[in-house]
Amino acid sequence: MTDEHDKLLPIANVGRIMKQILPPSAKISKEAKETMQECASEFICFVTGEASDRCHKENRKTVNGDDICWALSSLGFDHYSEAMLRYLHKLREFERQRANQSNYKASSSTEEKDEATSSAASAPSFDFEILERGGRSSPKP
């Protein structure tokens, strides 16, 4: 039998995320953290279940990011789906660039390896923005 707490997000992580949006002087009760923990965990299970059903119908065993985006959209969370798709595309582009740099380094001679190391230091960063209340956004590395 699985313990109920094993199905929940870690409470410390939930609290940390909650604190990011609130003013520094704000206090968050244990009850508020636990409520948010249960809601966020349930939301993740809801979306993941929808994505998993789709994969099962298509005889696939692995749920991927596109399945999660589809599930968000099909459940009426289009605004989340659009944001997740943008993030997913940026993530894949970043991984492609990193793989290309790794392949370049592996195929280079000793002299070229020194050059590749210096170019890897100037690799593009993977930036995204976190939207805050009031429509403000702040870039995060």
Give average pLDDT, whole number. 83
Number of distinct beta strands: 2
Helix content: 55-70%
Total of DSSP H or I helical runs spanning 4+ residues: 5
Tally of domains: 2
Share in β-strands: 5-15%
Largest sheet: 2 strands, antiparallel
Task: Explain this structure.
This protein folds into two domains: 1-76, Histone, subunit A (Orthogonal Bundle), CATH 1.10.20.10; 85-141, no CATH class. It is extended. The longest helix has 30 residues, at 78-107. Helix 2 (30-57) crosses helix 3 (65-74), helix 3 packs antiparallel against helix 4 and helix 4 (78-107) packs antiparallel against helix 5 (110-121). Strand 1 (128-131) and strand 2 form a beta hairpin. It is built from five helices and two strands; from the N terminus they run H-H-H-H-H-E-E. 65% of the residues lie in helices and 6% in strands. The chain is mainly alpha-helical and 141 residues long. It has helices at residues 11-21, 30-57, 65-74, 78-107, 110-121, and strands spanning 128-131, 137-140. The mean pLDDT is 83. The chain has a two-stranded antiparallel sheet with strand order 1-2.
Keywords:
5 helices; extended; 65% helix; Histone, subunit A; 141 residues; two-stranded antiparallel sheet; mainly alpha
What does the secondary structure layout of this molecule look like, with pairings?
Blueprint: H1 11-21, H2 30-57, H3 65-74, H4 78-107, H5 110-121, E1 128-131, E2 137-140
Antiparallel strand pairs: 1-2
Helix pairs in contact: 1-2, 2-3, 3-4, 4-5
